[in-house]
Amino acid sequence: MYQKLSKSLIGAVAALTMLGTAATAADWRGWNIHVDGYPNTVAMDKFAELLAEKTNGEITLQMFHGGTLGSQLDAIEQVRLGGLEIGNFNLGPIGPIAAEANVVSLPFIFKDVPHMFRVLNGEGGEKIAEGMAAKGLVPLAWYDAGARSFYNGTKPINVPEDVTGMKVRVMNNDLYSGMISELGGNPSPMAFAEVYQSLKTGVVDGAENNWPSYESTGHFEVAGFYSLSQHLIIPECLCINADVYNGLSDDMKAAVKEAAMESATVQQELWAAREMSSREMVEKAGVVTNEIANKVPFQEAMVPVYAAYLEANPNLRPLVELIQSTD
Ligand code: BDP
Predict the structure, then answer these.
(1) How far is the CA of 209 from the centre of ligand 1 (A)?
(2) Would 53 be classed as within a structural domain?
(3) Residue 217 near ligand 1, beta carbon < 6 Å
(4) CATH number at residue 77
(5) Out of 67, 140, 190, 238, which residue is the most buried by the measure of CB atoms under 10 Å away?
(6) Based on the domain organization, do 255 and 125 belong to the same domain?
(7) Is the pTM higher than 0.85?
(8) Whether the CB of 88 sits within 6 Å of ligand 1
(9) 202, HSE (Cβ side, Cα atoms, 13 Å)
C-alpha cells in the first residue's frame, strides 16, 4: 500500500513537473515566403536551431516556408496581432504600416547595400526599429535583399521612356505605385505568388526584383530582359511580435537576439553567393541583361515620390536627410 502510494505520488510529481515545463516553454510559429535552399529559408531554419540551443529548449520555433501560411500582407498582420510569433519580412509591405520603415522604400535612397547596412546599424536603424515596434513588430536582425531591378518580356529598359505604357507589378506600397506612374508606366500591386502567372499570361508586362527572387520564382522564364536599374535597395527583417518579445525575461531576450543576429550573418553570407549564382544561372538560360548607362533621369523622375512621402510625414524629413548624409 505504502509502496503503491509513493509510486503514484512520484507519478503525480513527475506529471506536475512536466506541466510546469509545458507552461513556461514556448512553441513559436514562423512565416517565410521563400523556397527551400533560398538564403532566407536556410537562415530562418538556422535561427530555429539556434533558438532552441540558446534557450535550452525553452523556446522552439516551427518554420513554415514557401508562404504556406498565407501572403506576406496577411502574415505581417498575423505577427502584429500575435497569431504568429515570427516572420521574415521585406520592409516594403511594412512601410504603409510604419512610416519610419517606409523611408527605405524611397527609390534610390541608398547608394548601395553597404550604405544601407551602415544606416541600419546606426541611428537611422534605431528610428526605423522604434517605428516598427510601435506597430507591434520588433526587428531582431536585418537580412540582405540586394537591389531590385526591372524585368519584362519585350525589351531592355535604358531610359524612363522605355517604361511608358508598361504594366509593371509592384509590391503593395503606394511609393512603388508612384514610382512606376512617374516613369509613365501602369503599376499593378500584387502578391508575390501571383506574379509568375501574371507575367506568363500578359496580365502584367514586367516586374522588378533582385537576382535571387527573379531566379527562384522562375520569372526569368517568362520575362527575359533584366535591366540593372537597381532603383530599390530594401532591407528585410527577422521580426517578432512585440508583446511576445517584451514578455520575455532579459536572459531570454538576449538569447533570442543572439540567435537572430547569428542567423543574419548566415543569411548575408549566403546572399552574396546566391546573387552571383542566380545571375549566372539565368544568363545561361538566355536572359538578356543590360546596364543602364545613365540612371540620373530615373532618379530625377522620383522627385514627386519623395515630395509625397515628406508631405505625408513632415516629421521624417530629418530621417531622410540623415540617410542622405550618411557616407
Ligand atoms: C522578394 C522578397 C519578398 C517579397 C518579394 C516580392 O524577399 O519578401 O515578397 O520580393 O516581390 O525579394 O513580393
Answers:
(1) 7
(2) yes
(3) no
(4) 3.40.190.170
(5) 238
(6) yes
(7) yes
(8) no
(9) 1
